[in-house]
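Re: that chain you flagged

S.,

Sorry for the slow reply, it's been a week of failed gels. I finally had a moment to sit down with the sequence you sent. For the record, here it is as I used it:
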Amino acid sequence: MEHPWITVGSLEDISLDEVDAVAADIDHTLVDFDRAHEKAIAALSEMFGARFANMVHGYFSLILEGSRRIESDIWDRRTEYESLIARIAEKQNPTGVYGMKKWSRETWIDLANDELPLTLGSADIQAARDTYWRTLGTSAVLYPDAVDFLKRLDQQGIPLVLMTASDSVLELHPEEGFR
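Prediction finished late last night. Pasting the structure tokens below so you have them in one place:
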């Protein structure tokens, strides 16, 4: 019997009858990523100012929206998105096994550094990246319906497979870019 994929508004709406296993994304599904991201952006604002932090947030928002689009979508920000992707690729060394990382916070931080322009060095960029991730990690909380959903899975002995996008930490290497 084929099990269809379903999209739900709340994890409470999911019936676990005849379910053998559940695969779930982490961000925006189980974890309130938006709230944690807002706090991480606020921490960047404290470090380098609101204009800088708003630019990093703008890159995040554009990448998120662009990643949810298909090429045939009519979208007024497509050119802006493609330009950002090209600028990210220029900053990175995408010849490695994993290719270009469009979700790289350090690349976005470096782009904001260039645009303002600031004079952030490699250590500053890494410190900003680490502040972002540390703040995000300490601010992340499960959605209330996720707590109940995880309890139901555990009570019924249903395995849970967690997955997420390929956020990764890159290092800035002079002459080579981020890798």
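What I noticed first: Residues 27 and 33 are 5 Å apart (CA to CA).

Talk soon,
D.
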